[in-house]
Design brief:
Number of helices: 9
Number of domains: 1
Oligomer: single chain
CATH class: Alpha Beta
Order of helices and strands: EEEHEHEHEHHHEHEHHE
CATH architecture: 3-Layer(aba) Sandwich
Radius of gyration: 17 Å
Strand content: 15-25%
Length: about 270
């Protein structure tokens, strides 16, 4: 990760690895960090231009902060970079943004990958942050996101702890979480026509496996990969399996061999 420098241009901060072909745009979650995508960046930077825009979760005024405002930000960023096509991938809130982006920009979206995505249902921290200032509480909350609690490193817990104990940032998190709940997409998912890959941890406690199955049912051209011994962030907890599934999917999309009339489900362990 250290070799990737965060670029700052205009209103945008982002990582871009370079490389040829259709850009792979990664959208992080509400409390996600760039390190969450380290496995994807390292693997796909060999074959793709991997791009991670840093979402302005704490820079937009509370009055106008919403999921749609973040979708507009990503849309503006893609136009700014002159990308004509993108593979878009999102985890958690980032997946929610990816769905709305795909609905808004069907001609630009080559494919969509969702992993532990909101948009239908999520059981996160609710509308408040109880026990602010309690590090052990936040540590347990972070550990519960993963099948293996050791994935919640001290660095990750420290980052979350700092965020939720900053009053303005905590208010932003709550505002976006409420906006996400209001933007339930169940009635609109049928309009997403691009090839879609769903990678879901079987032990996901935030967006349980039935949520992934529901996305699979509602998104027409979708493929569901269930990952065992895995929680809410498969790209962090089972990066090798995640990359195998994503590489297979993107290769088929780019070779025009993705079967849009099939709705396959696979389990990896």
């Amino acid at each position: 990760m250290d070799k990737y420098i965060i670029k700052e241009e205009g209103n945008y901060k982002y990582i871009e690895t370079g490389g040829e072909g259709t850009p792979l745009v990664l959208l992080h979650g509400l409390l996600g960090a760039l390190s969450n995508f380290e496995g994807i960046i390292n693997h796909f930077s060999k074959t793709h231009n991997v791009v991670v825009p840093i979402l302005p979760l704490f820079e937009i005024s509370l009055r106008s902060l919403s999921v749609m405002r973040l979708v507009d930000y990503v849309d503006d960023f893609v136009h700014y970079k002159n990308y004509t096509k993108v593979h878009i991938l999102g985890n958690s809130l980032g997946g929610h943004i990816a769905q709305l982006y795909a609905l808004k920009n069907p001609d630009t979206t080559s494919s969509m990958t969702l992993t532990g995505s909101s948009g239908l249902f999520e059981s996160a921290m609710g509308n408040t942050f109880p026990k602010r200032g309690n590090y052990e509480y936040m540590k347990k909350k972070a550990e519960s996101v993963f099948y293996d609690p050791a994935v919640a490193t001290k660095e990750l817990v420290d980052d979350i702890y700092v965020t939720v104990n900053d009053l303005k940032k905590a208010m932003c998190v709550i505002a976006i979480a409420k906006s996400a709940v209001r933007h339930n997409l169940e009635d609109r998912l049928d309009d997403i026509k691009c090839p879609t890959l769903l990678i879901w941890g079987i032990q996901d406690s935030v967006t349980p496996i039935w949520v992934g199955e529901k996305f699979h049912e509602l998104i027409p051209n979708s493929e569901l990969v269930k990952v065992d011994h895995c929680g809410h962030a498969p790209m962090m907890e089972r990066p090798e399996l995640f990359n195998i599934a994503l590489e297979s999917f993107m290769t088929r999309v780019e070779n025009n061999t993705f079967m849009t009339d099939k709705k396959d489900t696979y389990t990896l362990d």
